[in-house]
Amino acid sequence: MTSGTPRKETMSHVPFNSQALENSIPENVRLLPASVRTSDQTLANPSKDIQKFLKKDLDVGKLNHIDQYLWLAGAPMPPKPLNYQIATSRLIAVDERIDMHMVWEEPRQLHLKPIPRYLLDPQFWETHLICKKSCCASRKDTISTPGDCPKEIKKCALGFLCSYMALIQFESDYAIARQYRLLPDTITWEMWLNLVHQLLENDVCNPANIDSRYLFGELRLSRLNTIYAIHGSLLSGYQYTYQNYTELFHDYLAPLTVATVYVALVLTAMQVGLATTVLGGSVSFQNVSYRFTLFAIFGPLGGIVLVGAMGVFAFTKNIVNTWRVKRQKLASYEQRVIQNRIP
User: pTM score > 0.85 for this model?
Assistant: First the structure.
């Protein structure tokens, strides 16, 4: 099988047993999602490699990449509480992507990642987020081997909890969080009070304890996209927001349309000026009018050509990426089918 879809193989046994629908799974598994996607978009069991899952679920490296420019996208202060977000007509979008947590986009939509169950379990912290190795035995800020020490993931986890300490300040915030299922159903208001008070007593939100991303609250997506565009990701930006090419052309051509209207107004004013005795006899004004007329002719045309080229580039890039993913996935499917046939 080298092309087309993989051939279906009939399973020779029942895919699950009677215990699958019973409450008999270990507690640490109960705290995790049902499945996760790997780097090649294959579904996997998160409990098989919990440290790898935690890095994917909590790591904010995408924002750390532009850490020094985050002040351009948001203020260096905790996020405003949920009641304020609702009062200012912001819509809350539940989003499990950690790099979209506390990121807002037009029209007034704020992305929030719900608190995972495992972050509210002390035993899970003790087992998977507290490093007991020599690299963290002292108070020195040593750099550990990537994947070997959960210290950086712990900072992300603490920062994430700090963000919710600011988002859920009042009982009205708690009610909003329950409405959008941002908190597990088992957490009552009294439990949340005790948790926040303990976190405050332990100085959890000290900048030394949290990831630098959480020194900032809400971040504006349009500015994050601009920052990433300057860094070389012109089309994809920080988060690709276009669902189709019509949206892409609309966003880029709308400012060009406004600029064209302004240019038309300036040309009209210049025509009136050239009809007067003072400006009509001015060589300097005539030269400026000549140059601006050429700009008015070729400027918008060049802008349209540039936007069209960006659209063609985006289309070509998407086609190439889709073809590459299709080839890799079908090869992977074929390999798995061959392995299943081996007795």
Answer: no
